[in-house]
């Protein structure tokens, strides 16, 4: 039971409890007994803090409720108080004259005074409440309260810590927002009963000079836990796109890991989106996580979106210890055909070339890229490149435009896309596979990818291909205001249930 499921009648009974009775309830809760919940709302975990203007880390910390903290690092050169800090939006609307209070946990590496406010955003930044918190190296509870001067929309006000001039690291724990007044026992019960996932930012070495950083989120309990490693789509992607799926999995006892691609966010090295590099980094991540005592090495699944939907099968085809694969809009097709099919469609959509000219371009590009894949001598590659450029330079396309097109095709990332054969890879995967495609996907051609996926998986006894109604390429519904991809509730239910059946997590205690 969560704190916001308290029956309405319980609030009435709570007001009749004497001090000794409430203290007895608190003692009982400390011993894990099932009791009526006294607080009005549940605390928010540390993932809800938004750190701006500086860097931060998630760290496990058994000394704070919830077992995890977000550590906000100081600026090397302080400028203004407001240039960096931490913000947590108040999730509910406020009425004029309504009291709003925040209770949170915080500490600092060295004693320091920190300005804390409840305030609105631009342009006027109206302040509802303000206080100064004297932080020490020990965790302490900070309270702040104020009254709304006017009606305020949900998320228009935030709890804010201004840290731009703070010379030391500040760690933050969970936050409890409430209206009116809660007494000491109510607040204590709210935090004692609080259960959250355990967060830890960890670094895993890949190639020399490359360290990948990501966030491991584990369910409460001792483990070892089953794990789902998530891979993002193409481009300089950071961790965090699978947030809503991760929350479902944590509730079922499954840990998750997402990381920043090399050269992106807090991962080192030079960004490189070629499949060989992506696969090498993903392999290093799985290998590193498999060595952790809190992870069950025999129950690691992989999931990925778009480009990540190719990476997952690449790992599973090479690593028989991978337990399951989930593909979100993973391209499937014969080597080269997917790439050339996309090129053909783009040329057709431009409407400037005849069908015969388009086919000449596609075939000359095929010969040239096949030669590159075969590592033919540079002199021969130059001849084939010239032929491809000449094919582009027809029917109104200038030599300069054709040269620009060839320059794009010459990019190593595009060549790596050409050389991957997702259908052959998928056919080699022997573990359970769930392949999902969006009905409204405008990036993939479902009419090609879905039959190819079914054909590649025909000999896999535990493989399922599902089309999600109304889903776009990133698995939001058209017109959705949801910030996160992979967010359609029915799809999240499907994926979570599918993974629970195959990873066999331990049932979490209530």
Outline of this structure?
By secondary structure, this protein is α/β, with parallel strands linked by helices. It has helices at residues 8-16, 19-30, 184-192, 243-251, 275-290, 308-318, 337-350, 355-373, 378-392, 399-409, 412-419, 422-427, 446-456, 489-503; strands spanning 50-52, 56-60, 68-72, 85-89, 99-108, 112-120, 127-135, 140-147, 157-162, 170-179, 198-205, 211-218, 225-231, 255-259, 295-305, 322-328, 433-438, 463-468.
Note the topology.
Layout lengths: L7 H9 L2 H12 L19 E3 L3 E5 L7 E5 L12 E5 L9 E10 L3 E9 L6 E9 L4 E8 L9 E6 L7 E10 L4 H9 L5 E8 L5 E8 L6 E7 L11 H9 L3 E5 L15 H16 L4 E11 L2 H11 L3 E7 L8 H14 L4 H19 L4 H15 L6 H11 L2 H8 L2 H6 L5 E6 L7 H11 L6 E6 L20 H15 L7
Parallel strand pairs: 13-14, 13-15, 15-16, 16-17, 17-18
Antiparallel strand pairs: 1-4, 2-3, 3-10, 4-9, 5-8, 5-10, 6-7, 6-9, 11-12, 12-14
Give the overall silhouette.
elongated
- How many domain units? 3
Largest sheet entry: 8 strands, mixed
Q: Assign the CATH superfamily of the largest domain.
A: Alpha/Beta hydrolase fold, catalytic domain
Helix content: 25-40%
Uncertain segments: 1-40
CATH uppermost class of the largest domain: Alpha Beta
Assembly type of the shown chains?
single chain
* Arithmetic mean of pLDDT: 87
Radius of gyration, CA atoms, in whole angstroms = 27 Å
Helix/strand-derived category reads: alpha/beta
CATH A-level architecture of the largest domain: 3-Layer(aba) Sandwich
**DSSP strand (E) fraction?**
25-35%
Count every beta strand, where a strand is a DSSP E run of 2 or more residues: 18
CATH topology of the largest domain: Rossmann fold
Major β-sheet strand ordering? 11-12-14-13-15-16-17-18
Instruction: Give the number of helices.
Output: 14
Ends: how far apart? 7 Å
């Amino acid at each position: 039971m969560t704190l916001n499921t308290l029956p309405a009648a319980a609030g009435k009974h709570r007001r009749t409890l004497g001090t000794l009775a409430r203290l007895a309830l608190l003692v009982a809760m400390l011993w894990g007994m099932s009791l009526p919940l006294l607080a009005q709302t549940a605390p928010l975990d540390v993932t809800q803090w938004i750190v701006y203007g500086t860097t931060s880390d998630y760290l496990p910390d058994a000394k704070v409720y919830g077992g995890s903290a977000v550590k906000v690092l100081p600026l090397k050169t302080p400028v203004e108080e407001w240039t960096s800090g931490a913000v947590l939006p108040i999730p509910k609307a406020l009425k004029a004259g309504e009291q709003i209070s925040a209770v949170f946990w915080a500490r600092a590496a060295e004693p320091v005074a920190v300005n804390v406010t409840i305030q609105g955003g631009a342009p006027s930044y109206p302040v509802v409440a303000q206080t100064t918190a004297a932080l020490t190296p020990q965790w302490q509870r900070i309270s702040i309260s104020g009254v709304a001067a006017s009606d305020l929309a949900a998320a228009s006000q935030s709890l804010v810590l201004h840290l731009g001039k703070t010379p030391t690291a500040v760690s933050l724990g969970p936050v409890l927002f409430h209206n009116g007044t809660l007494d000491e026992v109510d607040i204590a019960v709210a935090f004692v009963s609080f259960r959250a996932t355990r967060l830890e930012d960890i670094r895993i070495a890949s190639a020399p000079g490359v360290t990948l950083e990501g966030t491991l989120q584990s369910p409460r309990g001792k483990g070892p836990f089953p794990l789902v490693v998530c891979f993002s789509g193409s481009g300089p992607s950071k961790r965090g796109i699978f947030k809503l799926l991760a929350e479902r999995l944590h509730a079922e006892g499954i840990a998750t890991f997402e990381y920043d691609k090399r050269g992106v966010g807090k991962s080192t090295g030079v960004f490189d989106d070629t499949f060989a590099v992506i696969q090498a980094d993903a392999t290093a991540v799985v290998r590193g996580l498999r060595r952790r005592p809190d992870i069950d090495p025999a129950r690691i699944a992989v999931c990925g979106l778009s480009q990540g939907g190719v990476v997952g099968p690449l790992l599973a085809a090479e690593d028989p210890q991978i337990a399951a694969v989930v593909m979100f809009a993973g391209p499937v097709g014969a080597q080269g055909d997917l790439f050339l099919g996309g090129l053909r469609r783009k040329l057709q959509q431009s409407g400037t070339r005849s069908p015969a000219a388009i086919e000449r371009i596609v075939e000359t590009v095929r010969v040239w890229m096949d030669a590159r894949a075969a590592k033919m001598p540079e002199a021969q590659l130059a001849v084939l490149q010239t032929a491809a450029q000449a094919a582009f330079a027809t029917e109104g396309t200038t030599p300069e435009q054709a040269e620009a097109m060839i320059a794009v095709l010459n990019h190593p990332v595009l060549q790596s896309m050409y050389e991957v054969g997702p259908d052959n890879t998928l056919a080699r995967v022997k573990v359970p596979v769930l392949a999902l495609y969006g009905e409204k996907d405008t990036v993939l051609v479902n009419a090609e990818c879905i039959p190819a996926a079914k054909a590649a998986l025909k000999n896999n006894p535990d493989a399922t291909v599902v089309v999600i109604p109304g889903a776009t390429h990133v698995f939001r519904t058209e017109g959705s205001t949801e910030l996160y991809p992979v967010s359609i509730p029915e799809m999240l239910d499907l994926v979570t249930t599918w993974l629970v059946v195959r990873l066999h997590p331990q049932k979490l205690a209530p």
